[in-house]
Specification:
The chain is mostly helical and 571 residues long. It has 17 helices and four strands. The protein folds into two domains: 150 residues, no CATH class; 352 residues, no CATH class. Strand 1 and strand 2 form a beta hairpin.
């Protein structure tokens, strides 16, 4: 027996149990000795002792019992609430699945037990789907649950004896202490908090963490395509009109970058980068970092940090849906279409006011309503993604502080994970600023006298490059999109700035981080200078090209031995 490795090393062979351990570490009192590999998963027999459910479950989850093993026979990290809930829900016989909050209760340091039904599913996980091993774990889990119930009752009797009050069984425990009355069944213990109600923070995080990495960006892309097909069927995909001053304007839906490029390219890219970054942090970066710093936190640390921002999610939801969606649609679209008085520049949504034969008012109301509903939901996902990026940085910072007084190896792990997180956030920041640029370009274009947005940008660039005489006149229209695009640009930079302050410690990002910061600053400057002076399109074009390159190579080809993880991208 060797104590050199903190995790038991499992040999792989061709038998049913694939061989016994050749070495065993005396970690967590060495209860995982004599473990086996069953069905390609790490297995350890249940300890025959007097542990209650909390102690038994905590040690089995930390050891990774039931987790897949790698080629060397090591388990692929400890169980987390998210991983365990997903594994239980994937059991074919478990048709109803299991709530994440229920699993989180098992990890928490409380008096909550486990129901008999969930003992069955948990035993199958720890038993690696082996009938004999599952039976052993089911018996031990049931016994440990009984011991937990007995200890709880003993503590209550002791508390009643000290207080001199009536027996605890005659009155329920206060709900804010998280303790159930004695008559409460294990099933009630198991589901009390999971049934408390709707959690917008947890549901929003689930959009980014459940299913395939492509589900969310593909859904947004599909919605944009559906809107474009609908605009084609309505005949407003490409249409021009003559403004009162004689200017000919292209106001087709497909010519508006804030509805085409934004929702077909940059919004899906942002969501794809955010989803992958979140998956890396929850499934790989966070467990690896916790193991490196020697932390035993395998409970609901991430879930608690997500839930802590619940009010922020509600505020963003109300702003996106209530104001940016419903209120803006009523004031900018519905009221002008019904009254015939429009203070805003004519575009695809108000075309019927100047060309009634192109599209009817009821059709315009219906189409703009669907478009604005789609838009506000997409932007809620966008801001929810920014909140999650902020939460990732905050969580990383909290864990990273533990490595300050640890080994050099643990600090190296923290540096590598932090570097990958910053690259992922950098890509999301670039995508967010490009979204804001699309919004501001369209808002400026509809006020100019140029026929198309491409003609406007090319003519502006030629005033400097070729000395062409082109002066753009702008009509005096209200442009609410200026304000919303500015909020989008500023919000996109917040996770990157917060990460630069919290994660960039010891100067370890050096050259690559300076390049990323310069690219963000250049793109923000390009956004702010739109329409500010003749020739702005040249500066904007250079900034967009650099930002687009950063989406593919966030390190800008910087490789340095002092920058761990430079050869790994969150892509």
């Amino acid at each position: 027996m060797s104590n050199a490795s903190p995790v038991p090393r499992l040999p792989v062979d061709g038998g049913r149990n694939h061989g016994r351990l050749r070495s065993c570490a005396k970690q967590n009192e060495a209860e995982v000795c004599n473990a086996l590999i069953k069905n390609g998963k790490f297995y350890a027999p249940p300890p025959a002792d007097e542990r209650d459910f909390k102690d038994l479950f905590k040690r089995a989850a930390a050891a990774g019992v039931g987790r897949p093993v790698d080629k060397s026979g090591f388990p692929s990290g400890p169980w987390t609430p998210e991983r365990l809930a997903e594994a239980i829900s994937q059991i074919d016989a478990n048709r109803s699945g299991i709530e994440l909050r229920t699993v989180q209760l098992w990890f928490q340091d409380n008096e909550k037990g486990i129901s008999s039904d969930n003992i069955r599913w948990l035993a199958r996980i720890f038993g690696c789907d082996d009938p004999e091993a599952t039976g052993e774990w089911q018996a031990e889990l049931s016994a440990s649950q009984s011991r937990l119930t007995a200890k709880r009752r003993q503590r209550r009797r002791t508390s009643d004896g000290v207080a001199g009050g009536p027996p605890q069984a005659e009155r329920p425990a206060p709900s804010d202490e998280g303790m159930a009355p004695p008559a409460e069944t294990p099933q009630q213990q198991d589901t009390e908090e999971s049934g408390r109600g709707f959690s917008i923070a947890q549901r929003s995080e689930a959009f980014f963490s459940r299913g395939s990495l492509l589900d969310l960006p593909a859904s947004v892309f599909a919605g944009a395509v559906a809107l474009q097909f609908l605009s084609y069927f309505l005949g407003i995909h490409s249409v021009t009109y003559v403004r009162e001053d004689g200017a000919i304007k292209q106001v087709g839906f497909l010519w508006a970058p804030n509805w085409t490029l934004l929702f077909m390219i940059f919004m899906p890219l942002f969501l794809a980068f955010a989803v992958e970054l979140l998956a890396f942090w929850r499934d790989e970066g966070r467990p690896r970092l916790l193991t490196a710093v020697g932390s035993v936190e395998t409970a609901d640390g991430w879930a608690r940090k997500v839930e802590a921002s619940s009010y922020t999610y509600w505020a963003v939801f109300l702003i996106c849906v209530g104001f940016a969606g419903l209120f803006q649609w009523i004031s900018v679209r519905l009221i002008p279409l019904l009254s015939g008085n429009n203070d805003y520049a004519v575009d695809w949504g108000s075309l019927t006011l100047v060309q009634p034969d192109a599209i009817s008012i009821p059709q315009s109301i219906a189409f703009t309503g669907v478009a604005y509903l789609y838009m506000c939901l997409c932007f809620y996902l966008f801001f929810a993604g920014l909140i999650l990026l902020f939460t990732v940085v905050h969580d990383l910072y909290d864990i990273e502080r533990l490595s300050d007084h640890r080994s050099v190896d643990s600090q190296a792990h923290a540096a590598e994970v932090g570097h990958r997180i910053m690259r992922g956030i950098f890509r999301c920041t670039l995508s967010g600023i490009l979204i804001a640029i699309c919004m501001k370009l369209q808002a400026f274009y509809v006020t100019t006298d140029d026929k198309t947005i491409l003609h406007w940008l090319v003519s502006d660039a030629l005033t400097v490059l070729a000395g062409a005489d082109h002066e753009t006149d702008r009509a005096n229209y209200s442009m609410p999109t200026h304000y919303t695009s500015l909020l989008t640009a500023l919000a996109s930079c917040i996770p990157f700035l917060y990460g630069s302050v919290r994660i960039r410690r010891g100067g370890r990002f050096s050259s690559s981080h300076r390049r990323m910061t310069l690219a963000v600053a250049l793109l923000v400057a390009g956004y702010l200078l739109i329409g500010a002076f003749p020739g702005f399109a040249i500066f904007l074009g250079v900034a967009v090209l650099i930002g687009t390159y950063g989406l593919f190579d966030p390190a800008f080809s910087a490789r340095s031995a002092s920058e761990p993880g430079d050869d790994r991208n969150v892509s």
